[in-house]
Amino acid sequence: MAPIEGSAPSIGSSMNEGQKATGGDITVYPTKSEVTPSSDILQSTQEAELATETDTQEDVFNRILKANTDTTQHLREGDIVMTKSRSAIDCSDRSCFWPQSSDGIVRVPYVFSPDYDEAQIRWISEAMAEFEILTCIDFVNRTTESDYLNIKSGKGCWSQYGKTGGGQIVSVMKQGCMWKGVIQHELNHALGFLHEQGRSDRDSYVKIMWEYINSGNKGNFKKSDNSNNLGLQYDYSSVMHYGTNAFSNTPGKATIIPIPDASIPVGQRYGLSNLDVAKINKLYNCNRCSTILDSPSGSLSSDNYASKYSGNATCFCLIRIPSKRVSLQFDAFSLKSSTDCKTEYVKIYDGVSQSSEVLLDKTCGTKSPPTVTASGRTILVEFVRGGTGAATGFKISYTSGRSKPRKNGRESDVNNIKSKVF
Ligand SMILES: [Zn+2]
């Protein structure tokens, strides 16, 4: 997989590199996530909060800092709880990573504290479901496992780093942390990821504006001398990156400025980036073909579209637009015909997982499928291709369904991914 048209020329090479980790022929892994379509969630008690998410465009880390203002928990870098037994962050023996089963899946057991309501549980489950479709991480209900995540509404949004043993708390406060990107940020800490701007090579990508950081907060900008960067690019759009004004002591003054191009957006509003996914897949040796498209409109093609392709693969593309409803149409379609489209097909879901409502069931042949529109901001495209064939594949274009103009749109974000091949 590789982008055919970069809306992010400055990080184009990083996307290529990132995609290597997730590309290639793969095995089909089952995902099991009891997630209802996002329409249900939008109608839930979270509606007001979700609407605000679209309007304010606030970055993930800023939300976390706000939620953690009154916390009594001792936190490092704003939201990481360090265990007493581990003074320095060192996971070189992999003991703080979650174990991989022989089927390639990394199962992370969890329990929810009983104080969440149904809508909150669905929302956290949807944040988990994106990991499950894009990576080999599978969050599973705990049965008897001794190491697990205890997800509860503590005071603030915080997590421990990596697997610490026993029932470790991931705090997702009901008021203030119920955002997909925030939940994914905290879960990613528990998987063993630190903040992106703490990487050993960060000074090549960002300038820290120390004069706008109070001495008590300077430790939050400490750089790791020996971080494991997994051979993958620095990611300004990582869900693990601080926002540009994090810990600023002067309103309007940035504490992190991208170099050399200060206009590159920093931080993430919506969820995991493609490089976040590539890093998880590399750290956990996942064999997964997946990609995210997060621009308000864009396109997706099958590998070698318009020429004969080869190889068996199952690939997933999560289209996640910033607002409104995703609508997609097929500009070209030719897949090998077979009974019940068993051999190869495209299937489309109204949401983020294979348990979401089906918008387009398995489709093959040469008749172009109808336009489909999701109930919300996400659509999942599943493409199974069955070896060498005469078919030429497909090309999809998608748009944000409603055309209401946006006040503070980020359509011009250079980091948003507009076009993909898979
Ligand atoms: Zn964090």
UniProtKB/TrEMBL annotation:
<dbReference type="InterPro" id="IPR024079">
    <property type="entry name" value="MetalloPept_cat_dom_sf"/>
</dbReference>
<dbReference type="Pfam" id="PF01400">
    <property type="entry name" value="Astacin"/>
</dbReference>
<dbReference type="GO" id="GO:0004222">
    <property type="term" value="F:metalloendopeptidase activity"/>
</dbReference>
<dbReference type="GO" id="GO:0006508">
    <property type="term" value="P:proteolysis"/>
</dbReference>
<keyword id="KW-0378">Hydrolase</keyword>
<feature type="domain" description="Peptidase M12A">
    <location>
        <begin position="87"/>
        <end position="287"/>
    </location>
</feature>
<keyword id="KW-0732">Signal</keyword>
<dbReference type="InterPro" id="IPR006026">
    <property type="entry name" value="Peptidase_Metallo"/>
</dbReference>
<dbReference type="GO" id="GO:0060473">
    <property type="term" value="C:cortical granule"/>
</dbReference>
<dbReference type="GO" id="GO:0007338">
    <property type="term" value="P:single fertilization"/>
</dbReference>
<keyword id="KW-0278">Fertilization</keyword>
<dbReference type="InterPro" id="IPR000859">
    <property type="entry name" value="CUB_dom"/>
</dbReference>
<keyword id="KW-0862">Zinc</keyword>
<feature type="binding site">
    <location>
        <position position="185"/>
    </location>
    <ligand>
        <name>Zn(2+)</name>
    </ligand>
</feature>
<protein>
    <recommendedName>
        <fullName>Metalloendopeptidase</fullName>
        <ecNumber>3.4.24.-</ecNumber>
    </recommendedName>
</protein>
<keyword id="KW-0963">Cytoplasm</keyword>
<dbReference type="InterPro" id="IPR017370">
    <property type="entry name" value="Hatching_enzyme_Uvs2-like"/>
</dbReference>
<keyword id="KW-0968">Cytoplasmic vesicle</keyword>
<dbReference type="Pfam" id="PF00431">
    <property type="entry name" value="CUB"/>
</dbReference>
<feature type="compositionally biased region" description="Polar residues">
    <location>
        <begin position="10"/>
        <end position="19"/>
    </location>
</feature>
<dbReference type="GO" id="GO:0008270">
    <property type="term" value="F:zinc ion binding"/>
</dbReference>
<dbReference type="InterPro" id="IPR001506">
    <property type="entry name" value="Peptidase_M12A"/>
</dbReference>
<feature type="region of interest" description="Disordered">
    <location>
        <begin position="1"/>
        <end position="41"/>
    </location>
</feature>
<dbReference type="InterPro" id="IPR034039">
    <property type="entry name" value="ZnMP_hatching_enz"/>
</dbReference>
<feature type="binding site">
    <location>
        <position position="195"/>
    </location>
    <ligand>
        <name>Zn(2+)</name>
    </ligand>
</feature>
<dbReference type="InterPro" id="IPR035914">
    <property type="entry name" value="Sperma_CUB_dom_sf"/>
</dbReference>
<keyword id="KW-1015">Disulfide bond</keyword>
<keyword id="KW-0482">Metalloprotease</keyword>
<keyword id="KW-0645">Protease</keyword>
<feature type="active site">
    <location>
        <position position="186"/>
    </location>
</feature>
<keyword id="KW-0479">Metal-binding</keyword>
<feature type="binding site">
    <location>
        <position position="189"/>
    </location>
    <ligand>
        <name>Zn(2+)</name>
    </ligand>
</feature>
<feature type="domain" description="CUB">
    <location>
        <begin position="289"/>
        <end position="401"/>
    </location>
</feature>
